[in-house]
Design brief:
The chain is of the alpha/beta class. It has helices at residues 6-18, 39-53, 61-69, 72-80, 83-93, 99-117, 135-144, 147-165, 180-189, 200-206, 225-237, 267-279, 283-287, 293-308, 323-337, 351-358, 364-373, and strands spanning 214-218, 240-243, 248-251, 258-262, 313-317, 341-347, 378-382. It has two domains: 6-120, DNAb Helicase, Chain A, CATH 1.10.860; 194-382, Rossmann fold. The strands form two sheets. The protein has a five-stranded parallel sheet with strand order 1-7-6-4-5, with helices on both faces. Helix 1 (6-18) runs parallel beside helix 2 (39-53).
């Protein structure tokens, strides 16, 4: 199985010829030039993009042939590779009903090619020699793998190496008095008190949401863990809320970047909770459209506030989370959005986590390792 899949390229190119609107579904299909490992296919893909940009929804063999004939700089490669016959094959052999299958194959081959180029061992998913004893097993593993499972395997192997060689920041030994005087002086200058959470009891017990700490809220199903978590996240991210007793907007002075990861709720379910927290209006009234004139006015003002502080509250949904997915999500938002607080709702035995249990890839030290490079609170609701 070479690191090039001609059948997948033929199918993808041919289906794009028959329906260029596939390119508009960027959230579902992410096709790049690097997915094609030779010049001819890259030129054809470029031509398809040009036709699509000009409004074409289907592209004929004649259209593509004319495209190449009119461009001397790429015509030589086209004729040398017998391009006309190739695009005829693409059109004749492609089947839109199997596009998804061949698209995923193309992306997996492209990923393995990129990993190999970067120096990673891809032998677990790829065997070039059909005569090798493990060829059939490796090919079956490739067929069953998804993009995410390939990434997970690479990250698992890296984490094993990291665990073996990068332990200096986790293992320490010292007497109880070492650094104690300095700690007292530091606390006098900067007390260990975090941003306030919902409820005075929580703040008294844990001293607020302190950077670099984990907070786990545990309770049974349906008692309000998620609503409390959204309320805490809202308090940290949105600096205004309406106080119906004082009949005015309150400025809390808090203005933090928050990432809220949900495994179960849809975006609109979290949004109505957020709106209820900012407006001070019962969520049921918002959901049932039962607000009076004044409440509608407050909701409009709350919407303006939430929109203004849109970048402060980032909502991601990961239905089947694995440790690697969660790590990647948090790392990305830390680097790109400079998040300061993370909420994760909720911890449960997902297929992804069970898979990591099975492969012995889910370890207690992972939580400790995450805390070493995530300098902000991780607040979670737990079943």
């Amino acid at each position: 199985m070479p690191l090039s899949d001609k059948n997948s390229m033929i199918q993808v190119i041919g289906c794009l010829m028959k329906n260029t609107t596939i390119l508009s579904q960027a959230d579902k299909y992410d096709i790049n030039f690097s997915d094609f490992d030779d010049l001819l296919n890259r030129y054809i893909y470029q031509a398809i993009q040009n036709f699509y940009a000009s409004g074409a929804r289907t592209i004929s063999v004649v259209d593509l042939d004319n495209f190449f004939q009119e461009r001397p700089e790429i015509k030589n490669e086209y004729e040398k590779r017998n391009g006309l016959e190739y695009i005829k094959d693409c059109e004749g052999l492609s089947n839109p009903d199997t596009f998804d299958y061949y698209y995923i194959r193309l992306k997996k081959i492209s990923l393995l090619r990129s990993l190999k180029k970067s120096g990673f061992d891809i032998s677990y998913f790829y065997c070039e020699n059909p005569l090798a004893a493990n060829y059939k097993e490796t090919q079956e593993r490739f067929e069953q793998a998804s993009i995410s499972t390939i990434f997970d395997e690479v990250k698992k192997r890296l984490s094993i190496v990291e665990k073996e060689y990068n332990t200096s920041d986790l293992n320490t030994s010292a007497g109880a008095s070492v650094g104690l005087r300095e700690l007292v002086q530091t606390l006098k200058k900067k007390p260990e008190i975090g941003q306030p959470l919902s409820g005075s009891i929580y703040n008294t017990v844990v001293s607020g949401a302190r950077l670099g700490k984990y907070y786990i809220r545990s309770a049974g199903s349906g008692v309000g863990k998620t609503r409390l978590a959204v309320g805490d996240a809202c308090r940290l991210a949105i600096p205004k809320y309406y106080d119906w007793h004082k009949e005015c907007w309150i400025d809390t002075g808090l203005n933090n970047k928050v990432l809220f990861i949900t495994t179960e709720l849809d975006r609109d379910e979290v949004q109505t909770m957020l709106l209820a927290n900012v407006s001070g209006i019962n969520e049921d009234k918002i959901l049932n459209g039962e607000c009076n004139f004044l409440e509608d006015k407050i909701i409009e003002q709350a919407l303006d506030i939430i929109e203004y502080f849109n970048d402060n509250f980032i909502l991601d949904k990961i239905p089947d989370p694995s440790i690697n997915q969660i790590e990647a999500c948090v790392r990305n938002h830390k680097q790109v959005d400079q998040i300061e607080y993370v909420f994760y709702d909720y911890i449960f035995s997902s297929p992804g986590l069970l898979s990591e249990f099975k492969s012995n890839n889910l370890r207690e030290d992972m939580c400790k390792r995450m805390s070493s490079y995530i300098p902000f609170p991780l607040i979670s609701g737990v079943m």
